[in-house]
Every structure is written in structure tokens, then in C-alpha cells.
Amino acid sequence: MCINRKYNILILVVFACITIFSIVFLFLTSNNLNIQNYDIELEFNGDNAYNYVQDQLDIGFRIPGTEERKESAQYFISKFLEIDSNFTYLSHNFTIYTTECQNVLFKLSEENDNIIILGAHYDSRAKATRDPILENRSKPVPGANDGASGAAVLIELARVLYVKKDNLSSEIWFLFFDAEDQGGNGIPGWEWTEGSEQFVNDLDDFYDSTNENIESMILLDMVGGTNLQFINEQYSTSSLLDELFAIGRTLGYTNEFP
Q1: Residue 241 maps to which CATH number?
Q2: Is the four-CA dihedral 61, 66, 67, 70 of positive or negative sign?
Q3: Model-level pTM?
Q4: Considering the domain boundaries, does residue 256 fall inside one?
Q5: Locate the Peptidase M28 domain: which residues (predicted)?
Q6: What pLDDT does 208 receive?
Q7: pLDDT tens digit string along 143-189?
């Protein structure tokens, strides 16, 4: 894996800290941004997250429909069951054309009615269609940053938040998407975000819409890149994105959250 271990651990930790504080400030406390006065012990372990990235790369190319993709889903289940052998998890199985795919959902603090979704895709791209080296464009992508990094942060966030589960006033979903990254001829005929669209179509199968409310979702995608800067893009809910960036800058990460 050709990435700078020390720097990329830092990036994983930075994004995880922002996510934890976002949960605390956006959903569990008032809207007043007062990080200095909030007593929370962050226990996110960057080495753990890095190792989870390496574990996924060791499995191989996580292309939809392959045995490696199936092994990845089982890997996530095993890591969550290490946290708690009774951790609730659900498989969302679906088919794109003739390819069997699988989203995996884990639920924490299910007694709460309000739901926060933390999501990431775990499939790796079947073809490196934008590789600057022409002969590489038909080869599969290892997916260390684009796929494995977001999934790794989810696993470590689950470990951290599980310890604090009795203090959570919202249910947390950890949602791993398959079949997200194959558009643009990664797999011919496939579109981007196939897995998340399938999940939204079947969403009512996974919660009680009469008594439960999905408040927000934070998607972790490509959070392990070198010299990474997060973009204040226009597709997300602007108020949530503004809060995330404000928290990041308040914590001192002005380069990562310009």
C-alpha cells in the first residue's frame, strides 16, 4: 500500500474527531459551539483505523459480485461482534443486473427514536479509468483511500461510541454500502451510488417510520488521502456542512477544513 502511514493516520484521526464532535454538538447538546467547555474524552485510535484499511487491502479487490467483496462484509460483521457479541446487524441484499450485492447495517442505542446515520462505501472500483498511466486504466483499483478509509473510520468510531452508548440520545447507524463506486464504466452499464439508492428504496424495511425519525447522515468518503482538504460542496445539507467545517476549524484543522 503506497501511502504515508504517519500522515494518513493523522487524517483518519482528524476526520473521526470531527465526526465525534459533530454528533456531540449537532445532535446531543445545544446548538452552541463550545468545544472547550465540553468534557469528552476522545479515544479514537489512528493505528487501529490504519490497520482496518490494511485488512481490507489484504482481502483483495472488493469488486461487487466477487468473493473478496463477500469476505469484506463478513470482516465488518466480525469486527462489530468483537465490540459486542450482541451488536445488532442487518444485511441488505440486492441485485444489480445479475450481480449479487450487499449493504451491511449496524445499529447502536436502538432504544432512541432519533437516528443518525454514519455511512461509507466499501466496494473498490473495478477499473482505474482515470489513472494517468494509460495501461493501468483496465486494472482494478486497490481502494485504500476510496473505499477502505471510510469503512475503517466507521469501525473505529463504533468502538469509541459504543463505550459512550449510555450517554447517546440518538440511535447511531453504521452503514456500509456496496456497489457505490462503479459508474463511469468502472463496470459497464452501472451507475454511481447503486447501493445507497437501493437502500433508500428499501429504507422502510430497516426502521419504523411511524415512531422513528432519521435526523441526519454523515458520509465518510475518501477520508485518508495525502494532503487532504475537505470540500464545502453543494450537494449536502448546507447547515450541517457548515457546522462540520466550523467544528473542524475550531479544533484547529484549518488546512483540512478551509
Answers
A1: 3.40.630.10
A2: positive
A3: 0.87
A4: no
A5: 103-240
A6: 96
A7: 999 999 999 999 999 998 898 888 888 899 999 999 999 999 999 99
Output the nine-digit C-alpha cell for 258: 478551509
Beta carbons within 8 Å of 72's beta carbon, 6+ residues apart: 56, 59, 62, 122, 151
Q: Say how far apart CA 13 and CA 47 lie, in whole Å.
A: 9
For residue 255, tell me if it sits in a domain.
Answer: no
Burial 136-160 (b: 16+ CB within 10 A, else e): eeeebbbbbbbbbbbbbbbbbbbbb
Q: How many domains does the chain have?
A: 1
C-alpha span between 141 and 67 (Å, rounded): 16
Three-state DSSP at 48 gives helix
Q: Which three cell numbers stand for residue 96?
A: 444489480
101 domain residue, yes or no: yes
Written as one string, the DSSP assignment of 71-89 is HHHHHHHHHHHHH-TT-EE
Three-state DSSP at 32 gives coil
Which of 136, 72, 144, 127 is closest to 103 using CA atoms?
Answer: 72
- Structural domain harbouring 132: 5-250
Q: Position of cell 448546507? A: 238
DSSP-H helix ranges across 46-144: 46-59, 67-83
pLDDT-flagged residues of the chain (< 70): 1-42
How many C-beta atoms lie closer than 10 Å to residue 83's C-beta? 17
Residue with cell 494509460: 134
